[in-house]
Structures are given as structure tokens and as C-alpha cells.
Design a protein that fits this description.
The longest helix has 16 residues. It is globular, with a radius of gyration of 19 Å. The strands form two sheets. A five-stranded mixed sheet has the order 2-1-3-10-4. The chain has 239 residues and is α/β, with parallel strands linked by helices. It contains eight helices and ten strands. The model has no long low-confidence stretch (mean pLDDT 94). α1 crosses α7, α1 crosses α8 and α7 packs across α8.
Length: 239
Amino acid sequence: MTTISLGYLRNALHAGCASAVARVLDAHEAEVEFVDADPGELPGLLDEGAIDLLVSAWLPRDADLVQHGMRVLGTIYRPYYCWGSYEAVSSAAELSGDTLEALFVARSDAEKLQQVLAQTPNLSGLTPTICEDEALFGTVQGAREAGRKFVVFLAQPHALFHDEAFQPVSDPRFSEEMEAALLVRESVAACADQDMLDELSEMTLGNKVMSALEYAIQVDNMDPEEAAEAWQRGRLVAR
């Protein structure tokens, strides 16, 4: 039996994606070993050959990961950065530090937000509230229940977008989608089952499914493998 080391970033979104990919590998009778990592650990793990398949590369942002003996196998979903709000806001030009009480961001996106704020004078009066990544959902819900007016800087997909009331705010600076690519080690692709590689290359989850997976894992406390099975059996509702 072939053993595949499946790598992903250590959070609910990427754990759900890895578990969904693992369902395909299981169907091809491949034994899966999960390797979770922080972003800074990925290059070293790839150089060591500890990861055969990686589900957590967002191209072109993470294009340098391809240089570690990997190649792009397929696109699983298309993430993009955006502002998110429960208010009826049609464009970023309507956001104002005079009317908003808070700006939330996950720690992993805080550096990018600072770059964006330097070019967003209408939000200059807001000091961002930086949350740990897994705490962003709960922090935002708490602010909503308290009736506060706020905006969130984040990447779609996210568990917050599983609620149709939470919508991205149009901003031309963030209109370009990335590709959440499945990367495969060149040496593994050379000897892997071609039918399995073909199925993986055609595998598409989409942003709505990814938001639903993260919501199921982070909010409903489902095990990632349980959430992936629910997706595969059509029991995971993508809103």
C-alpha cells in the first residue's frame, strides 16, 4: 500500500481541506499520514521530503514553495482578501473610522492589514483589534451580539462567510483571486497512480464548501475527518 504524507497549515480551514483530499486518497487505497505545520515550518518540511502532498499553498502568494521539489497538481478553491461586514456596505469607500467602532483581523493577516491601512485614509481613526486566528470567529460574534459597528479584514473562505448575512465589501484592490493549489512532490508524482493524480488534479471544493468545512470544524466542533465525510456524502450544507 502506498503511503502519502499530506501536509497542511495548522488551522481548521486547512485541516478540513486536508481531510477532504484524504478521502480521495483513501478511495485509491493510499495510506495517509497527516503533517500539520505553522507557515514558517513548511519550507524545511518540504526540503526534508516530509510532505508528499501540500494543500495549503495560496498562489501566487506562496509561489516560493514550488521551488522545494514540488509542482502544482490542481486548484482546490480560490481565496481572496477582503473586508467583511454584517452591514449593507456596497464598497470600501463607504467604510469610515467616524462611523465604525472596531476593525478586527486575525494575527496571520495583521501585517497585510497594516500595508492596506497605509493606503486607506478613511479608516485611519481605527486601531485594529488583532485576534488569534481561531478566536476571530468568536470575537466577531461577540461584537455583533453587543451591537457594535465594525468591519473585518480577512480572507475568503472563512467560517464567518457560512452566514449569508456576512458579506465581502467591494474593494478593487482585493479583486484578484488566488489559487489554493494542491502541490505534489515531483518524485512522488513520477511513481504515483495516474488515475489518483488525475482525480486530485480535477478536485474542486470551492469557497462556499471551504467556509462550511471550517464552520463545521471550528464552530460545530466536528472532527476534520467527520466534516470531510459529511461533505463527501452531501450532508455538509454550503450556504
